[in-house]
Design goal:
The chain is about 80% helix and about 0% strand. The chain is mainly α and about 325 residues long. The protein folds into 2 domains: about 5-55; about 70-315, no CATH class.
Length: about 325
């Protein structure tokens, strides 16, 4: 009888296996056993698990070509692009609430620096085009998978983009009503503060932060549902090609919307009045890298899917 595994080694093994689940299924099927054996022999711990988890990102963004056929690469690209697009949409919603929806504190700034207003217009136009691209390219594929889903589990995943946002909006409405009844936030106009404090929609900064976290969770879950359905149902044909092409347009236009929001955020940081709440450097330090990372993942992944769609369409 073998000796029981020490608790530390057992915990390390759990971390490694958890990190391995972050990889695409095709990657795990090809390399999972080898990676586990290698880490077991080398006594991999928390550091090895963290390194393994970090390298899951390029496995999704740049999946090895020999592990996927053309349709599989398009499905993988759509899954990654969808999650990145959802995160960009969440960032755009936060930007719109804290910047674009606060004209009262920006009137003189917009008049003196029209580049901010132009950035708002560019942001709105690009978001509209991006959403239309998602609808035109994604709805036919979504309906096709919904019709062919063999089990309720796949149907539930496919309904996530409809059900999850609806639940979030109901929760946001309820929180708004409860926070409003608790009493309006008192803001001293002459005192400078964070924009999250001055422009939180009347629910207070902590409730607003709660809504932001719930919103991002809802966005990720909404995009994860179709991604799981793509992996399980494995659709092919013209619908997946159309969705892949539309994903490229959606990624590019949402990336342009993100760029416009960055220009507007920088303009407000430089030129807005002190009491408008846009002069805290940590806001840009969080927002800019998040937008750039999500844009890069969305466009790179969409481009890889588009290259895979060319031979499929020509065949």
């Amino acid at each position: 009888m073998s000796a029981p595994e020490p608790p530390a080694e057992r915990a390390a093994g759990v971390l490694v296996r958890a990190a391995l689940t972050l990889y695409p299924p095709a990657w795990r099927a090809r390399y999972g056993v080898e990676v586990l054996a290698l880490l077991d022999d080398s006594g991999g711990g928390a550091r090895a698990a963290a390194s393994l988890a970090w390298h899951a990102v390029p496995a999704w963004v740049s999946p090895p070509r020999h592990l996927h056929g053309g349709s599989a690469r398009m499905r993988s690209s759509l899954a990654t692009t969808g999650v990145a697009w959802a995160l960009l949409a969440g960032l755009g919603a936060v930007f719109a609430q804290l910047a674009q929806a606060q004209p009262a504190s920006q009137g003189a700034t917009l008049a003196q620096h029209p580049v901010i207003q132009w950035s708002y217009w560019a942001f709105d136009g690009c978001v509209v085009v991006s959403v239309l691209a998602v609808a035109v390219g994604g709805v036919p594929l979504w309906l096709n998978m919904l019709r062919t889903a063999p089990r309720r589990r796949e149907t539930a995943w496919l309904l996530a983009p409809v059900v999850v946002p609806a639940v979030f909006l109901l929760a946001a409405f309820a929180i708004g009503r409860l926070a409003g009844r608790a009493g309006p936030a008192v803001v001293v106009p002459s005192r400078s503060g964070s924009v999250a404090v001055l422009a939180n929609g009347g629910v207070g900064p902590w409730w607003f932060l709660t809504l932001v976290v719930l919103g991002f969770a809802a966005a990720v879950l909404s995009a994860t549902g179709p991604a799981v359905a793509l992996r399980r149902l494995r659709p092919e044909g013209s619908a997946i090609v159309l969705a892949t092409r539309a994903a490229m347009l959606a990624a590019v236009t949402m990336g342009l919307a993100g760029a416009a929001s960055v220009v507007a955020a920088l303009g407000l940081y430089l030129w807005a009045p002190a009491d408008a709440g846009y002069h805290e450097g940590w806001q840009l330090a969080v927002y800019l890298p998040a937008v750039l990372l999500a844009v890069a993942v969305a466009i790179v992944s969409a481009a890889r899917g588009l290259r895979s769609a060319r031979p499929t369409a020509a065949a």
